[in-house]
């Protein structure tokens, strides 16, 4: 079966949107399988910048059917605003399909998310306050509202009434907030949102399987990344779903044998947003330089990202977790100005050399990176389009990453634009 998964291998912001957009040329369908509008995929086409939060990156190609799978949590208002922005730029969104089994982000989810973060104070998780976590929590507690509930106003109101009794109790007693009104929410979702969503709501599981059965190329796109995975990330500083490649099976309704290619995307360095361990984190002037050179600010939140050197220990574990068949490395052009570039090849923990990611988080917090240092190339890579355009120092850097990670590096991004990739082959 011609199924391909694109997965982030670090803490997100690796360039999944750009890679998905690039691979979409060969696809007929692009399926988003988890996450919500708390992540932004940035794509630059002919000088025009598109920031996609919910809508799959394949929307920019006329031949693609973009699908929002059952594993995604959907904020209708955000989705509609995103559609409006795209349509204003001439992008047809009528091809978009949304799973009836996807869960809805509700106003009380956003409010509880923001209030909880504020209540946690210095122990906050660093969420985007978008309501994503509370929506997934309701899904697990079996009290969530799904997209298909919008199609039956009576059922929608009944379910909302039950949930609001609990949520208003929490808002009042824990946060001293006024109760949410059922009519206000129901009118917003049924009268304002539903007319726009109704033509898009589909049985996406059968839609995807029909495409696979017909031999169509289907790309499965995750949000966030491996180390923000609820089970395999740096818990509790994680998202509330499973971005790893296996999450595509649950979030899109496919089986493992429907996937024959898993493409990991990594930066030539590492970034993360919010709290949590970060063994190779840079601080001070060196961090400030990289953040400014690489414009490391969140596409959705605008928050300054934490930055650090490439961590091959984490990458080797990500290769295993995702069964990567290949790796794409992004933003190596952002390292152009460094005279020396470092790659973490192991950790020192309590005097021991450790080559595998420690399972115990206290050890990860104590991990001191062991680096291999390489000479930088100190020239502009943005004009490179063929492997021979890359200087020997850049090839040396990529060869070390390939050796350390154990999978072929087939593509390297050297700029923001859609076509600024160098294909390295097999």
Automatic annotation (TrEMBL):
Keywords: Cytoplasm, GTP-binding, Ligase, Magnesium, Metal-binding, Nucleotide-binding, Purine biosynthesis. Mg(2+) binds at residues 13, 40. InterPro entries: Adenylosuccin_syn_GTP-bd, Adenylosuccin_syn_Lys_AS, Adenylosuccinate_synth_dom1, Adenylosuccinate_synth_dom2, Adenylosuccinate_synth_dom3, Adenylosuccinate_synthetase, P-loop_NTPase. It is an enzyme of class 6 (ligase). One of its GO terms (molecular function) is adenylosuccinate synthase activity. GTP binds at residues 12-18, 40-42, 305, 331-333, 413-415. Pathway: Purine metabolism; AMP biosynthesis via de novo pathway; AMP from IMP: step 1/2. GO terms for cellular component: cytoplasm. CDD domains: AdSS (cd03108). Transmembrane segments: none annotated. IMP binds at residues 13-16, 38-41, 128, 142, 224, 239, 303. It is found in: Cytoplasm. Belongs to the adenylosuccinate synthetase family. This is Adenylosuccinate synthetase. It comes from uncultured Acidimicrobiales bacterium. The lineage of its organism: Bacteria, Bacillati, Actinomycetota, Acidimicrobiia, Acidimicrobiales. The gene is purA.
């Amino acid at each position: 079966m011609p199924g391909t998964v694109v997965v982030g291998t670090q803490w997100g912001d690796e360039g999944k949107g750009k890679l998905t957009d690039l691979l979409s040329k060969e696809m007929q369908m692009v399926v988003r399988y988890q996450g919500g509008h708390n992540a932004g995929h940035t794509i630059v086409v002919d000088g025009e910048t598109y920031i996609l939060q919910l809508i799959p990156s394949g929307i920019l190609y006329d031949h693609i059917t973009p699908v929002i799978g059952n594993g995604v949590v959907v904020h209708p208002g955000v989705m509609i605003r995103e559609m409006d922005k795209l349509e204003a730029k001439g992008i047809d969104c009528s091809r978009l399909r949304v799973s009836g089994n996807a869960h809805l982000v509700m106003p009380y989810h956003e409010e509880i998310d923001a209030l909880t973060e504020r209540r946690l104070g210095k122990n906050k998780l660093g969420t985007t306050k978008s309501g994503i976590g509370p929506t997934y929590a309701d899904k697990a507690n079996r009290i969530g509202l799904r997209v298909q509930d919008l199609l039956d106003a009576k059922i929608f109101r009944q379910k909302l009434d039950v949930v609001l009794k609990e949520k208003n109790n929490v808002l009042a007693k824990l946060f001293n907030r006024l109760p949410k009104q059922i009519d206000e929410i129901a009118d917003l979702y049924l009268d304002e949102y539903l007319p726009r969503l109704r033509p898009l709501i589909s049985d996406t599981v059968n839609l995807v399987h029909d495409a696979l059965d017909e031999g169509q190329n289907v790309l499965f796109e995750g949000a966030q990344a491996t180390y923000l995975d609820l089970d395999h990330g740096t818990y509790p500083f994680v998202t509330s779903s499973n971005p790893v490649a296996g999450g595509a099976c649950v979030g899109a309704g496919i089986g493992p044998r429907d996937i024959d290619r898993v493409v990991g995307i990594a930066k030539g360095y590492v970034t993360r947003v919010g709290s949590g361990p970060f063994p190779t984190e840079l601080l001070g002037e060196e961090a400030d330089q990289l953040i400014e050179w690489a414009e490391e600010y969140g596409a959705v939140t605008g928050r300054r990202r934490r930055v650090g050197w490439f961590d091959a220990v984490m990458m080797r574990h990500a290769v295993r977790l995702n069964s990567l068949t290949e790796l794409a490395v992004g933003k190596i052009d952002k390292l152009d100005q460094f005279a020396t570039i470092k790659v973490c090849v192991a950790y020192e923990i309590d005097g021991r050399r450790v080559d595998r990611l420690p399972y115990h988080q206290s050890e990860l917090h104590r991990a001191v990176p062991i680096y291999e240092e390489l000479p930088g190339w100190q020239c502009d890579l943005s004009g490179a389009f063929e492997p021979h355009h890359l200087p020997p120092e850049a090839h040396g850097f990529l060869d070390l990453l390939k050796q350390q990670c154990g999978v072929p590096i087939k593509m390297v991004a050297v700029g923001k634009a859609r076509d600024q990739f160098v294909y390295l082959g097999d």
